[in-house]
Amino acid sequence: MSILYIVLSVIYILACGGLVALILMQKKRSSGIGSVAGMGNADTYWDKNKGRSIEGTFEKWTKIGGAIILVFTVIMCLI
Fold it and tell me: Are the C-beta atoms of 5 and 69 separated by less than 8 Å?
């Protein structure tokens, strides 16, 4: 194994662990399929200001973490 692959593997494992921690810290939602179809209650004060809350921050970093893991997966498959 090359040194680059080992370094990428360590970073990949740390990113996966961080993503799991972020997902576990998020608030549980019980709105179900209605939120996907646009039938959820999205007009509340909390939902409008979600981006400035800690849950909004967790959601943003979860998306970034998922993208990082996707990129590392593709890179490691090509090596």
Answer: no
